[in-house]
Fold these 3 entries.
Entry 1:
Amino acid sequence: MWSRFLRGKDERSQDRSRFHWRDVLSESTAGVVQRPARATLTALGTVLGVGSFVAVLGLTATAASQIDSRFSRLTATEVTVHDVAREHTDFVPLAFPDDADQKVEHLNGVQHAGVLWPVQLDKGQQVASAPVVSTGAGSQIQVMAASSGAVRAADPVLQQGRLFNRWHDRTRQKVALLGVGMAKQLGISTLETQPAIFIGDETFTVIGIVSDVRRRADLLLAVIVPRSTAQVLWGPPKDGADMLISTRIGAAQQVAREAPVALRPDHPEYLQAVPPPDPRSLRSGVNQDLSQLFLLLAAVCLFIGAVGIANTTLVAVMERTGEIGLRRALGAQGRHILGQFLMESGMLGALGGLIGTSLGVLAVVAVSTARDWTPVIQPLTVFAAPVIGLATGLLAGLYPAWRAARVQPVAALRR
C-alpha cells in the first residue's frame, strides 16, 4: 500500500510525496478493525453522548406535544371571571347577576358556566352529620356556594346520586354535594338512606357524592350547596365571587373578552376575565426548560466520549511509534500520518454517532409506547446527530494525530 508513494527524480521532488485518499481510508479502516475491543470502548462514549442528544431532543418534543394536547383539552377550555366590584365601589356586594349562568351560556362556544364562592359561616357554626356536635373537625370543613352551572363546568365524576340543577337553584333547595373523602369524614357511605348533614342549624340533604373533578379540585374538599340557598342563608360573599366557564377548544379567548360585557353591560369593569395562557408560549417554555437541562447532560456525555477517544488514540500513537517511524522512513510525511489518525478517530466518532442515533430514536419510541404517547422526532435531529459524532471524533483525535505527525523516523525506529 505504501508503495504508492511517488518520488520525483530530483532532490526537490524527492521530499514531496503523495498519499491517495483511498490509501488513507484503507489504512484507517485496518487500524480500527485490527483492534475491535479498543474501537468499541472508544466509540462507546460517543454512542452515549449522541444517543443522549437524540433521546433528549426527541423526548422533549414528545413531552411538549403531550403537554400541549392535555392543555388543549382542559386548561385551554377554562375561563375564570373574578368579581372586582369592590375595587371600584363599596355599594355592590355581588357583581354577578342572578341569571349570570344563562347570560354566559348564551355566548358562542360556552358549554357550562356558573358562579361560586367560599361561604364564611358565622362564629360557632360548623358542618356535621348530627345536629349536636362538639367543636372539632367539623369546624374545619369548608362550605362552597356554587350554581348548577358552576358544578357542571367543573366537570365532576359522580360516584353516587346526582348533581343539583337549575330547579334546585331557582327554588333554593337545601341540598348538598360531597366529595368522596368528605363523605367518609362525615360518615356517609351510601345515599340509599337519604342522609343529611347539618351546617349550623340548617339541614341539607346529600343528593350526590363526587369522586373527582377535572377543574377546581378544591371542590372535593368542601360541601357544595346551591348558590341561591347560600345567598339567602348567609348573605352575599364577603370576599368576592368567581365564575367558572368551560368552553369549546379555541373559544376561550373570545369568551373571556365577551363575558364581562354580557354579564354587566352597565359596568363591565366590575368583572375581570382571566383567559388561559397561550399554549404556544407554555410549550415553548417547557421545551426550553427541558432542553437546557437534558442537553447539558448530553454535552457531558459527549465530552466524556471525546476524552475517551482522545485518550485511546493517544495510547495508540504511543504503541504504534515503531509503525509510524517505518512509514516516515518509507516517505510518508507528517500530514499523511496526521490524516490517517484523524480519519481513524473520525470513523470511530461517526460510527458512534450512527449507533447513538439509532439507540436514541429507539429510546424515544419505547418511552412513547410505554406512556401511550405519539413520538415526535425532528428530522434535523436525526441527520445532525451522526455529524456531531463525526465532529466529536475529529476534535478528540486532533491532538493525538498532531503528536503522531511529529514523530521523527530515526527516534521511532530506535525503540
Entry 2:
Amino acid sequence: MSARVGADLITVVTAPDARRAVEAVWRIESARLIAGLARMVRDLGTAEELAQDALVSALEQWPRTGIPRNPGAWLMTAAKNRAVDGIRRRQNYQRKLEEVGRGLAEEHAPDAGDGVGEIDDDLLRLVFTACHPVLSTEAQVALTLRVLGGLTTEEIARAFLVPEPTVAQRITRAKKALAKAGVPFEVPAEDQRPARLASVLGVIYLIFNEGYSATAGDDWMRPELCADALRLGRVLAGLMPREPEVHGLVALMEIQASRSRARTGPDGEPVLLLDQDRAKWDQLLIRRGLAALERAESLGGTYRPYTLQAAIAACHARARRPEDTDWTRIAGLYEALSLVAPSPIVELNHAVAIGMAFGPAVGLELVDELVDEPALKDYHLLPSVRGDLLAKLGRHEEAKAEFERAASLTRNERERALLLTRARESNAQTP
C-alpha cells in the first residue's frame, strides 16, 4: 500500500517494519549523512549528534507517515533543519550562519541538488578524519566503525570483547581530541596523503583481521567485522581509484574472505588452510580479489605491502588442491615483503613458506633464528609454527611442548582447543 505525499512516494508500513527499515537505512546511509553534515558544521561530534537526531525523528515519524521514497534524503533534510534550528537558537546567530550555515535552509535533498562527486569528497574527508594520527589506534578503530561502519557502541564492544562504556569513552574522547586539535574536515594535502593513507588502510585491515582471526573470546571468526572492513575497503577504492595500495588491500581482503565458509567446522572449530574443503571457497570473491590485484599491479603497486600480501593469497586461491600451491613463489613474495615492510611476523611467515617449499628442516632453521626475537616473545604462532615443523621431522615430544606453550599464549578459546589437540596428537606419536 502506498500514498502520495508532496513530491515523494511514501510506503505505508507497520511500526515494526518501519523500525527495521530505519535500522537498515541507517547502516547504509549513516556514513554519507555524517560526512555531508560534517562538511557543513565543520565538527564531527556535532555532525553525528545531528544525524542521531534525524534518526530519532525517523523512528518517531515513519511508523505514522510511512517510509519515504528516498530515506537518505529525508534523513539529510531532517538533520539540516535541526542544524538550522540550533544555529538560530544561538546568540551569535548571524555570524555562525555566515560561517557554517549559509544556504542550509535553502539546500535541497541530496538526490535533487548534491552531486555524486561532492558526496564522494565528503566520505573521503570523513575517512581521513576518523583515522587522523592525533588519535590512538583503538580510538581510530572505534570511530571508524561508528561513523563509517554505522555500528552501535554495543556492536563494537561485542566485536572486540570490551565493555560498552569503554567503547563509548573512546568515541567521545576521539571526537573531543579532534575538536581540541582543530583537525580540519578535509582530505590531507598531497604530500601528507601517503602517511595518512597508510593509517587509514591499517585501521581497515585491523578491523578485518579481528574478524578473520579473533584475538580473544570463544569464536574463531567474527564475520560481521570482516564484512564491515571489506565494505569500507570497497568504498575507499571507489573514492581513490588511482591508489594502488587501496586496491591491494581490497584484493587481500576479498581473497581471504573467500575462505570464510571453509575456515570452521560443524561446531565452529578452526580448520587450517591446508585442511580446508576448497569447494567451499567463494569463487565470486576470488574473482573480485584477483581483479583488484590486477588493478593494483597495473597502477604500479606490485612491490607494495598489501599488494604483495594479496599476491600471496592469490597463490593459495589459484591452487585447486593444497599440493598444487606454488610455495616457491610464496617464499619469494615473502622475501620481497620483508624488504618493503620488514617485521618478525613477516620473517616467521617466510620461514613457513620456506619449510613448505624446501622441507621442514630448512624452515625450522629459520624459525630457530627468531626464538629470541623480543617482539615474538608472547606471540603464540611462533611456538605453533615451531611445533608443526618439529612434528613433520618426527620430533614429537618437542612438538608437544611447543603446542602446549602456544596454547598457553593464545587468548582465543577455539584456537587453544586446536593447539591442545595437536599437543595430544604429538604425545600419541611419542615412542
Entry 3:
Amino acid sequence: MNHYLSVAGGLSALAALMHLGCIYFGAPWYRVFGAGEQMALMAERGSYQPTLITLGIFCVLMTWSVYAFSAAGLIGQLPMLRAVLVSITCVYAVRGVGGFFFMAWPMGRSTEFWYYSSVLCLMIALVHFIGLKQQWDVL
C-alpha cells in the first residue's frame, strides 16, 4: 500500500464530499467555500445550475479519488492508471499555480479563496506526485 496515494485519494474524496455539502446546505456553503455570490444567489433562487455544476465537480473528484486508491493498492487496478494519475497530478498542479494569477482578477471570488484553494491544490498535487513516483514501476 502506498501511503501518499492513499492520502491523495482521501483528500480528493474529502473535497468531493465538501462539494456535496454545498448542494445539500445550499447558498451558505457556496459562500463559505468561495464559490461566488452568483452561485449562492442561484442556489437561493432554486436554480438547478449550481447543483449540476457542483455535482459534476463531485463526480470528477470522486473518480480521481478512486484512481488514487487504485494506484495505492487499496482496490483493484483500474485501466490506464499511470496516464490518468499523471493527468490528475498535472490538473491539480496547473489549478494550483493558475489560481495565483486569478487573485488579480478574482471573477466573483475572493482573493482569499484563490490563495487558499491554490495552496491546497498544490499540496494535493505534491502528494500525488510523490506517491506516483514511488509506484511508477508497479503501475
